[in-house]
Structure formats: structure tokens, C-alpha cells
Amino acid sequence: MRRGKYLLFLYNDKNILLFHLGMTGFFRIEKKYQFRKHDHLIFNFINKKLIFNDIRKFGFVKILNEREISECSHLKNLGPEPLSSKFCYNYFKKNLNRKTNIKNLLMNQSFVAGLGNIYCSEILFRSKVKPTRQLRLIKENEISKILDSVKKILFDSIKLGGTTIKNFVVSDEKIGYFKNKLMVYGRKGMNCFKCKNKIDKITQSGRSTFFCSRCQK
Q: Which one, of 127, 153, 151, 157, lies nearest residue 140 by Cα?
């Protein structure tokens, strides 16, 4: 099962493996193990092997039991899943009293679990909301636009296998084709697909943000 950016492997003896893939971690399945650089962990099954590979070593695994999981520091403060019914208009509106901007709110895992930096830039572009806008200035109709964009972009990305950036891979080491659908991320100085204005890049909380200053107000 998955929770936010974490994978949970549930065992019959009530132990749980908690995985975070980091930026470059991935699993592959092989009938006969063939060593590859950056292989870190191998699970042996009857006819197959599951191998965890992570080039940059930001991923990790922890062994927990059923009693520990509810108080696990990685999970206990996570917000609702972005595709769940709990991530709705009323929930969003109640959180607009925070003193931050809309991009940082979407990136805050205690507000909504699992949204990454790339998708937040894309969500706000398609919602026509500037990423630096303070929450007190977000209008009610913009809440609906953001929620719709979150769900549409995530569903589209899932269908296309996610977004491949640099050396990240998905199942069977194929690329994630949603990269070809990105409207602003990684496009600094290029023409906006909608208005031909140049895409801007800024840094927010140490992360790169891309937006169109003409389309996003």
C-alpha cells in the first residue's frame, strides 16, 4: 500500500516495511539476479527477486511493527491523500488562515500528502494562480480550480507513467511520459504555451518554482 510518498509492505506476522524511494530509487523484478551498480537490497521470492536500486541514496527502508506504525514520525502528521474525498473544498478553505503562500501550502505534507515540486508548479499554472500569492488572497473560485487541477494532473500523470527527470525510471525502466506534458516546469526562458510570455523561475523554500507571470496572477 502507499501513503503519501511512502510505500508500506505488510507482512502476515504484523511487521511492516516502510520504504521511501528518494529521488532516484526504484524496484525491478528479475527471475535470476544480475548485479547492477547501486543495488542495495534484494528480496528473495520462490521464483523471482525484487531488487531495490538507488543511485543517489536518498531512499530508505525501516522495519516497523503494527503497533508502531500509527506513531511513526514519517506518517503520523501527513495530510489527506490528494485524490481522496477528504481533500475537498471545505478542507482547503479551512487551511487558508496559514501565513504562507499557495505553493508552500501545496508542498506542505501535513496539508496534503504526496504532492511533489514538479506537480505543484504545473497545478498552479493550470489554475492560473501565481505561486507566491499569499493564502489570504486566494479566492473561492480559485480553490475549486486548484482542486480540479490537482486531480486532473495526477490522473493524467498516472496514466502516462509519471514524470521522468534526469535518471529516474519507472516500471521496467521505461520513462514517465508525463514529462512531455509539462507546461512550465524546467522551461525557464522558454515561451509559455498559452501566451508566448517567457517562463520565469524563482526559488521558494529551497525548491525551484516555474510560472508564467502573465497567465498566473
A: 127
Kindly give the pairing relationship between strand 6-10 and strand 2-3: antiparallel
DSSP at 19: E
Bridge partners for 6 per DSSP: 3, 20
Q: What is the pTM of this model?
A: 0.82
Read off the pLDDT band of 157 (50, 70, 90).
Answer: confident
Predicted confidence (pLDDT) at residue 118 exceeds the cutoff of 60: yes
Region of residue 145 (phi > 0: left; psi between -120 and 50: alpha; otherwise: beta) = alpha
Q: Are 21 and 116 in contact (CB under 8 A)?
A: no
* Domain co-membership, 130 together with 182: yes
- Write down the mean pLDDT value for the chain: 90
**What is the per-residue pLDDT across 6-32, written as a single tens digit (0 to 9) for each?**
999 998 888 999 999 887 888 999 999
CATH number at residue 65: 3.20.190.10
Contact (CB, 8 A) for 127 and 153? no
State which residues form the domain around 28: 2-71
| CA–CA dist 60, 52 (Å, integer) | 10
- Total tally of structural domains belonging to the chain: 2
